[in-house]
Write a structure and sequence with these properties.
The complex is a heterodimer of chains A (about 80) and B (about 300).
Chain A (H helix, E strand, L loop, with lengths): L8 H15 L1 H28 L5 H24 L1
Helix pairs in contact in A: 2-3
Chain B lengths: L1 H15 L4 H9 L13 E2 L2 E2 L4 H26 L8 H21 L4 H21 L4 H13 L6 H6 L9 H23 L1 H6 L8 H51 L1 H46 L4
Helix pairs in contact in B: 2-10, 3-5, 4-5, 4-11, 5-11, 8-10, 8-11, 10-11
The chains are: A mainly alpha (about 80), B mainly alpha (about 300).
């Protein structure tokens, strides 16, 4: 019997939960970075548009696109790293 | 007589005012207003240093954690037995959990002792800051004030009742914590590889130079995105849970206003209170998970700066 299979059910469940969460760390960081990049750079673009007082939203659009690019780049790095 | 009439007019206006759930909820989760802080302090270089409720909560949590942990560890060091007991036992379990479960798998054996103190501080501080939001300290003070103390409108007790108690639901607080992580990532990379090599490690070596023109700005933006994601995630999760509970409790007042007091009490007994109790129970898990995820992500980012693989 492996060491991990010993002990009460609750202790084993917590151990497996911890192990799974630990392994999901890089994936969680990639997903949060993806969303964070889109929100941050899209928001930055929107703020620039608002500051310029322009009717169009080209900076917001540009920010969203760059955010997507940066987010997916970070995601790709995490996937290839593994 | 004139004063009495004025008070009666005010009460009549208040009675006719509609219940504004959004305003009440925001007032209960946000910081105290900058126009009415707990203590007014002068601006320095354009920055307002006035003490608001969230600042007070930060100080209280930091002081409590510092005093309790120092006292418990000193008491343990003075005793003859090596085996810890009571609170020290729990503290040791937390330290081992953070060191072996969060820091070591991400930064490696060589750097575990260097980065465990920072990550452990994050974990304990965020956990306590999250948890204090679930304890109705100021609500009890409010009850005491209403029925026993009867303090004036401008008293400190009244000021303390405004705003939320969860400091980690304030984006400025989580931004400050994420800024520490941002600095730690740079320090970790610089210590492991040297200052210049750390910045060179941002992009993979051996690529054609036009690619670097594209990759360097992306990597620099990525550096800022990571702490931003940490900031938004923690604050949004903490504020979201409180808004959900307050929104459900608002049903009582909304239904009472629309269909009478009986309907409000009925909705409260059948829907609002049981749901609020359920979400509060979930919040206990949320405060643990959010402290865990913040520290885990910080350890992952620090680990990525130390263990570079392209």
């Amino acid at each position: 019997m492996a060491d991990d299979d010993r002990g009460p059910v609750s202790a084993r469940s917590l151990r497996y939960l911890q192990e799974n969460i630990r392994r999901s760390g890089p994936a969680a960081s990639a997903s949060y970075t993806l969303i964070g990049a889109i929100i941050l750079l899209g928001g930055l673009g929107y703020a620039i548009d608002w500051w310029r007082g322009a009717a169009s939203h080209w900076f917001a659009l540009g920010g969203l696109l760059v955010g997507l690019f940066v987010g997916f780049y970070e995601l790709a790095k995490t996937v290839w790293r593994r | 007589m004139a004063v009495q009439e004025h008070v009666q007019e005010q009460l009549a206006t208040a009675a006719h005012e509609k219940f504004n759930a959004g305003k009440v909820i925001i007032e209960h989760v946000s910081n105290s207003r900058l126009q009415h802080p707990l203590v007014h302090l002068p601006k320095v270089l354009g920055i307002d240093f006035s003490i608001t409720k969230h600042v007070l909560m930060l100080w209280l949590i930091a002081a409590t954690v510092f005093v309790v942990v120092t006292w418990v560890v000193r008491r343990y060091l003075r005793q003859d037995r090596l085996i810890p007991s009571g609170f020290m036992n729990a503290l040791e379990a937390v330290v081992e959990f953070v060191r072996d479960g969060i820091v070591q798998p991400n930064v490696g054996r060589k750097w575990v002792d260097t980065w465990t103190p920072l990550i452990l501080t994050f974990f304990v501080f965020i956990l306590c800051a999250n948890a204090i939001g679930l304890i109705p300290v100021f609500e009890v003070v409010g009850l005491l004030d209403r029925f026993v103390l009867h303090t004036g409108e401008d008293s400190l007790v009244k000021q303390l009742l405004h705003g939320g108690t969860t400091a980690t639901a304030n984006f400025n607080v989580t931004a400050a914590l994420a800024t520490i992580t941002f600095g730690a990532i740079i320090v970790a990379g610089s210590r492991a590889h040297g200052f210049f090599k750390h910045w060179k490690n941002l992009v993979p070596p051996g690529l054609a130079w036009p690619l670097y023109i594209l990759l360097i700005p992306i990597e620099v933006l990525g550096m800022f995105v990571k702490p931003f994601a940490l900031t938004m995630r923690l604050a949004a999760n903490m504020v979201g849970g409180h808004i959900a509970i307050l929104a459900i409790l608002s049903f009582v007042f909304l239904f009472a206003e629309l269909f009478g007091r009986g309907a409000g009490v009925g909705v409260g007994l059948v829907v609002s209170v049981p749901l609020a109790v359920g979400i509060s129970a979930l919040e206990i898990i949320v405060i643990l998970v959010q402290a865990y995820v913040f520290t885990l992500l910080s350890a992952v980012f620090i680990g990525m700066a130390i263990n570079v693989h392209h």
